Amino acid sequence: MKKGTILVLLLILGTMLLGITYKRSETLYAGGGLWAPPNNWNPITPWAAVTGTIGLIYEPLYMYDPISDEMIPWLAESGGWKDLNTYELKLRKGIRWTDGTFFNADDVKFTFELAKQIPEIHYSTIWKWLDNIEKVDDYTLLFHFTEPLYHEWTTNLYQLPIIPEHLWKDRTKEAILTGANENPIGTGAYLAETYDQDRMVYLKNATWWATELLGIEPTPKRIVYLRALSNNVALGMIIKGELDISNFFLPGVPTIKKFYGIHTWFEDVPYMLSDNTAFLFLNTTKKPMDDVQFRKAVAFAINSEEIVEKVFEKQVLPSNPLGFLPLDGWMKYYDEDVVNKYGFEYNPDIAKSMLKDAGYVDKDGDGFVEAPDGSKIELSIIVPFGWTDWMESIKIIAANLKAVGINASAEFPDFGRYQDELYGGSFDMAINNFGSYLSVTIWTFYHWLFFPISDYMGNGNFGRYDNPEVMELLDEFNRTPFDDVEAGKEIASKIEEIFLKDMPAIPLWYNGMWFQASEAAWTNWPSENGPFHYPSTWAGRWQLGGLMMLTDLKSK
Amino acid sequence: MGKYLRRKIIIYLLTFFFAVTIDWIIPRFMPGDPIRTLLSRAAMRTESMELLYNYYNKVFSLDLPLWKQYLNFWGSLFRGDLGTSVYLFPSPVFDVIKKAVPYDILLLVPAILLSWIAGNKFGAFAARKKKLDNTILPIWYVLTATPYMWLGILLAWFFGVVLGIFPISGAYSFSMRPSFSWEFIWDYLKHWILPFGSLFIVQFGGWAIGMRNMIIYELESEYSRYMEAMGAPAKLIRKYAFRNAVLPQITGLALQLGVIVAGALATEVVFSYPGIGYLLLQGILNGDYFLIQGCFLFIILGVLLANFFIDIIYVIVDPRVRRGMSGETA
After folding, report:
1. What Gene3D superfamilies does the record point to (chain A) (predicted)?
2. Mean pLDDT value of segment B272-288
3. For residues B272, B275, B278 and B283, what is the CA-based torsion angle, rounded to 10 degrees?
4. What is residue B330's predicted lDDT score, i.e. its pLDDT?
5. What distance in Å separates the CA atoms of residue B120 and residue A428, rounded to the nearest whole number?
6. Mean pLDDT, residues A340-364
């Protein structure tokens, strides 16, 4: 009895001593893309899935490198338009799902066709212009289109994750659309190992296909993707070298960088790559924002340079008049002539005279202009409360507008109210950037800016700018072969001209691809001097460079 | 006693019903649409957007008329189903809360109890020692009045960054997986000490100041003076004063313990401590009706239970309540 008790006690003590601790030299600590406790690994609902679900676990057919503006075949070995209506896709041989099954054309066909069966899958609209998918052999597919939308198709190639047919074909519609998909099986470089409220842990897939087929291998054995609840925690951790890569917006980076040797993409100003464009949306259904002259005067009155300097400490760049990100993929459509002719710049004098010419003058002598019909103008600019950088920005904008005689003030409703006002169309002016993120084509950007009008504008064109002509041009652009840049340019120039003439929204500055890295444990981070990988770990961005960054890291 | 309890229980049941109803109504009056918030994270085509919106609206039964939603809510509540979180789609609210609550309890119960005991002792002691009252208590006044956020950040900065002895975020190291090992327990304690300490400091001050003021008041009151005049020993007077002074402190303690599920929001933000406070905040920011309802339900239950216990404890510690029950008049 006594001996037995001692034995049991010893056994308990023995197991108690076996803790699991990750080795620092094998573990990458990353953060900035996890905003909620991990609880969803379903690639069909990417907006709710943990960052890395797409990119680290599930992989798309292609990768897109925004720095070199190249589409990189990934699960696909090659692909191209056989004729104007047929896209031929050849898949790589020798790729396995992490359960050991081989990946082949059936999986790709299944992934696309699933959205035909279930229209609530977000990419189901593809079936409006895709006719059928023909399986030639196990590794070759032909996509027959009724009306190929080349630009949109290209974005799908690198955004849609391919799912394994053998594990998904028997799932119910409900499981597919509302399941958490715990223990996800993909083809990717990492496996979902464990998670807790404030972290997601990925373990390297030892048998990842790309190691054999492409000769690349991610260096970290584990990625601990952590969720920091506040900036000061993230900042403290990166200074102490406990966080290796941070994709958080951290104020004060230019100063801290010098003291603590924090790594950023650019050694000097602006430190960060540009990721998306912040726009000032003007509610074109309300007076006086329905007046083009008024909107243009607002554009001339805003000093983006001042915002960049005072609010962002020059961590970002002011936008060009079109709002195009400074990326080759977009700038090739940037028409200098159109911008020179119709563009705007910060110039309060021009703003004032434009207002005057359009009949906006100060009649009652209170220092602010009245509308041509004599009514008072009192406008508010909104951003969600707590978004401190934007809050400071709209204070500057309000001051800029007051300086030219427009009575505008900054307001900070909570996010719910902001959303209601913005989507419901009751706001005057608001800042937003939700759909201006970088992509392979300006189509995504313009689709967001000119989103078709409905009662509830939940996904773009918040100012409710109504112009059927521009939507037609955009569809035409979408139907122009991706490689036919010349034809695309011609259409893009027309859209640009309309945009600048009508000014439905005003581009202000580029929000950065916030990237701060510590060299305490890992080196060879991406930078302007190479390696040239887009340094993002945000959800849906791993396939833009984040994964490649992992293959270049060196343990210290 | 039986009659007293019966009356109390009826009152508590009614309170529960109204509180839960209000809990159900309030989120629905908030601006913002949870499903829109959920889907605004996705970029997609116009046509998909509406389809998805309708589908997920149905999944969360938000397409039903309000009265039906309300009845369904009570129905599922009795089945122990708190619904699915929108913010943490597709986790059930109950699971979300279940995962967060242990962190709160392990942090807050010791902080509240220890600060209460220590604060009361110290306050009672300080009330009699002029020197202590004049030197140390003002420091606690300052600490208690400091904005908690600032105090927390200061502690994190000094002990975490400057001295580097304590970690500043999380409940345990990011390099660990929970296991029943000495290494892990040690690590957990190291993460626990700063948030605990910050809560302790602030609450200790509050309790001590409260106790000190009460004791002084009691010692100045008529019965104390009478006893003094009668020649009762100082120790006995203090004992009576303490017993009277501690009553409001017990109420305070129970209320504190009652809202424990609500966590300490500021603590959780400053130290990135995974508890329910932060979840609740996120639920509110994301218009997540179900998560808000669930969290508040636990708070309501906590407060009601705590109050119920005070009612019972008062019977024991406060002779006036006891006498009132047996029909005597004071």
Report:
1. Dipeptide-binding Protein, Domain 1, Dipeptide-binding Protein, Domain 3, Periplasmic binding protein-like II
2. 85
3. 140
4. 38
5. 55
6. 94
Q: Which of A226, A230, A236 sits opposite B160 (nearest CB)?
A: A236
Q: The domain containing residue B121 runs over which residues?
A: 103-271
The pTM of the full predicted model, rounded to 2 decimals, is 0.89
pLDDT tens per residue, range A521-541: 999 999 999 899 999 999 989
Structural domains in chain A, CATH included, are 22-57+188-271+514-555 (3.40.190.10), 62-168 (3.90.76.10), 273-512 (3.10.105.10)
What HEC string does A287-349 produce?
Answer: CCCCCHHHHHHHHHHCCHHHHHHHCCCCCCCECCCCCCCCCHHHHCCCCHHHHHHHCCCCCHH
In a domain, B229, yes or no: yes
Residues in chain B with CB shorter than 8 Å from the CB of A448 are 43
Q: Is residue B51 part of a domain?
A: no
- Residue B171 sits at the chain A interface (C-beta within 8 Å): yes
Is-cis flag, bond preceding A531, omega within 30? yes
Confirm or reject contact between A424 and chain B (CB < 8 A): no
B226 falls within a domain:
yes
Q: Which residues of chain B neighbour A452 with C-beta distances below 8 Å? A: 46
Give A494 to chain B, closest Cα distance, Å: 23
ipTM: 0.83
- Give the 3-state DSSP-derived string for A4-46, with helices as H, strands as E and coil as C: HHHHHHHHHHHHHCCCEECCHHHEEEEECCCCCCCCCCCCCCC
pLDDT value of position B160: 84
Q: What's the pLDDT at B140?
A: 81
Residue B51 has its nearest CB partner, among A24, A119, A180, at A119
A325-335 confidence digits (pLDDT tens): 999 999 999 99
Nearest to A180 among B87, B90, B103 (CB): B90
